[in-house]
């Protein structure tokens, strides 16, 4: 976390809530963005945008006016648990024939016919 963000938060921020990952959400004491309040998150651990739950994402982007209540923060039975974005890690998806997997693809079947203008 950057020292500048911490200082700005201490001087201008009002705490709104915390999510299940320990991320803290703030709003500005005064309207600063063309009449709209400024909202931000201070991450616990590495700064990773995909670690913001959907409900808090909607509040951060002004899709909902009220911050998340305890009842709204509870997961529904049909919701899957959050998974971090695995891009750039060993858990990232690599399709068959990817260079990291040896670069060998299945041979073409011969059913492709290229278009050519008449």
Describe, in plain words, how this protein is organized in 3D.
The structure is a single chain. The mean pLDDT is 83. The protein has a 3-stranded antiparallel sheet with strand order 1-2-3, with helices on both faces. By secondary structure, the protein is α+β, with helices and mostly antiparallel strands. It has helices at residues 3-12, 54-60, 70-73; strands at 13-18, 24-33, 36-42. It has a domain at 1-72. It is elongated. Helix content is 18%, strand content 19%.
Largest sheet: 3 strands, antiparallel
Number of helices: 3
Oligomer description? single chain
| Uncertain residue ranges | none
Order of helices and strands: HEEEHH
Average pLDDT works out at 83
Structural class: alpha+beta
Rough outline: elongated
The number of strands is 3
**End-to-end distance, in Å?**
60 Å
Q: What is the strand content?
A: 15-25%
Radius of gyration: 22 Å
The portion of residues assigned to helices is 10-25%
Describe the strand arrangement of the main beta sheet, using strand numbers.
Answer: 1-2-3
């Amino acid at each position: 976390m950057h020292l500048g963000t911490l200082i700005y938060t201490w001087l201008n921020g009002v705490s709104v809530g915390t999510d299940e990952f320990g991320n803290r959400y703030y709003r500005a004491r005064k309207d600063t963005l063309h009449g709209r309040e400024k909202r931000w998150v201070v991450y616990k651990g590495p700064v990773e945008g995909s670690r913001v739950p959907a409900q808090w994402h909607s509040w951060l982007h002004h899709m909902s006016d009220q911050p998340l209540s305890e009842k709204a923060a509870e997961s529904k039975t049909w919701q899957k648990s959050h998974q971090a974005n695995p891009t750039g890690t060993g858990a990232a998806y690599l399709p068959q024939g990817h260079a990291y997997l040896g670069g060998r693809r299945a041979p073409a079947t011969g059913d492709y016919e290229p278009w050519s203008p008449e």
